[in-house]
Amino acid sequence: MKKGMHGLLIVLAISFIIAYYWDKIPIIRDSVSAVFDPTLGALLNWNLYIGFLIIVGLTSLLLTLSQKYLTDQETLREIKKEQKYLQGEMKKYKDQPEKLLEFQKKQLEFFPKTFELTMKPLIYTSIPIILLFRWFGDILHPVFGGWWIAYYLLGSLIFSAIFRKVLDVA
After folding, report:
1. Which residues contact 36 (CB under 8 A, 6 or more apart)?
2. Which of 62, 66, 83, 143 is deepest in the core (most CB within 10 A)?
3. Which own/partner contact pairs does 105-108 have at CB distance under 8 Å and 24+ positions apart?
């Protein structure tokens, strides 16, 4: 197993432990609340909807910046360019199964490299995002029910698309 994969597995294990023990070990929840309540909580107390939108925008910006500066953007662009070419070739040869299979195999070769390149930001951002989501669950669930996750994801998709375009992230 590659070094980066070990890091990812460790971060994922820590994230699952945090999520599982959030309510069982109060110091985890209390520590996170001590940090988020006076900062992000202040935004939510000021105006729940606008504050939530600001937080979603800020987290999307931070995640986009981590993708931009913690990945090899040039290599990712080259991979995307090659994948786009292969997709075009696959459309041309859709009626020729042996050619199509050849292009599909070439395309599959990119997955491990792409995964390796994009894993680093995930390692650095997973735990903070898990902490934020657990904290959101405690704060927002009484107001929005489970719908806060849908609102977060929708806002995140919109903000991320804008930030990725503006910051030219591959």
Report:
1. 131, 132, 135
2. 66
3. 107/83
CA–CA gap between residue 24 and residue 31 (Å, rounded): 14
For residue 11, the Cα-to-chain-centroid distance in whole angstroms is 14
Give which of 52, 24, 60 is closest to 143, Cα–Cα. 52
The structural domains of the chain, with segments of one domain joined by +, span 3-72+123-166
125, 71 contact by CB (below 8 A):
no
Look at the block and give the residue holding tokens 């504050």: 51
Asked if residue 56 lies in contact with residue 162, where contact means CB atoms within 8 angstroms, the answer is no
pTM, entire model = 0.83
Reading the block at residue 95, the tokens are 């009626």
- Is the distance from CB of 15 to CB of 127 less than 8 angstroms? yes
pLDDT per position in the chain (170 positions), as tens? 566 678 778 888 998 899 899 999 999 999 999 999 999 999 999 999 999 999 999 999 999 999 999 999 999 999 999 999 888 888 888 888 888 888 888 888 888 888 888 888 988 898 999 999 999 999 998 888 889 999 999 999 999 999 999 999 98
Residue 136, class by beta-carbon neighbours within 10 Å (0-12 exposed, 13-18 middle, 19+ buried)?
buried
The Cα 74–Cα 62 span in angstroms is 20
